[in-house]
Specification:
heterodimer, A: 5 helices, B: 113 residues
């Protein structure tokens, strides 16, 4: 695996692009979640950011390591130390991705006020104010 | 090995279900956003979350469901699809969720600034 500099065919292949794609997606999700959380209420912002941080860790650190072959599922000829290391990373991956999606989904639900009819059953959810003319939004 | 750690490694089904539940929540919230704000970001997010949900569901189910008989019944084309589609769905699902979330955020800024 030590072919440096990598040839163009490897860089252009699906296997070469996937880790980069994962890293970009994780970081971009984090940035967008940050920008949404700026305008959200307190707990919505906390839950959204927690989920996005976990997803960012999973997608931009752990999954590229798996794609690169640094981490893999344990093989029979691995030493016990290596197996413990790999199992630990597998646990981190499971927790980061699953809890990440869980918290992120819950945060978006709070942001979209999906549960407001459960907490305030008699209150009709207020729509956002109608579009107004702004310098950025021509109308 | 500690019991809880062993459960995390070998029997990760509750954890996987938690992730699936979170993806379903993302889809529900995205549909809610698209219906309330009429923004295409919500639609894209809903499609992406559904793709991720289907791919994850298949990856969790396939070791428990796929038997030799079922493979014979499905035939080569469907077997190829079950091998080829989940990674595609995982990649495009993440991309669609992130793109939709970004466009929704842009939309929020344009309306509320």
């Amino acid at each position: 695996m030590t072919n440096f500099p990598p040839s163009l065919t490897i860089l252009a292949s699906m296997d070469g692009v996937r880790p980069v794609f994962m890293i970009v997606m994780g970081l971009f999700l984090l940035v967008v979640a940050w920008r949404v959380a700026e305008k959200a209420s307190r707990w919505t912002a906390r839950i959204l950011i927690a989920g996005a941080l976990l997803l960012g860790l999973g997608y931009s650190v752990i999954l590229p390591l798996y794609e690169a072959g640094v981490l893999h599922s344990p093989r029979p000829d691995d030493s016990p130390d290596t197996v413990a290391w790999l199992l630990g990373w597998k646990a981190v991956k499971q927790v980061a991705l699953n809890f990440g999606w869980m918290l992120f989904g819950f945060g978006i639900c709070l942001h979209a006020r999906v549960f407001s009819s459960l907490f305030h059953p008699n209150k009709v959810p207020q729509p956002y104010p109608p579009r107004e003319c702004t310098p950025r939004l021509k109308c | 090995m500690h019991a809880s750690f062993e459960m995390l490694i070998t029997g990760g089904l509750p954890l996987d279900m938690l992730g699936l539940f979170g993806l379903a929540l993302v889809a529900v919230a995205a549909i809610r956003l698209s219906s309330r704000h009429r923004s295409w970001g919500g639609n894209t997010m809903a499609i992406g979350a559904t793709m991720l949900f289907l791919a994850r569901l298949w990856m969790i189910l396939s070791p428990r469901v796929m038997t030799m008989d079922l493979e014979h019944a499905l035939g080569p084309v469907f077997i190829s699809l079950t091998i080829g589609l989940p990674p595609l769905f995982l990649s495009f699902g993440v991309a669609a969720v992130v793109l939709g979330f970004w466009s929704h955020e842009r939309w929020l800024r344009e309306v509320h600034n």
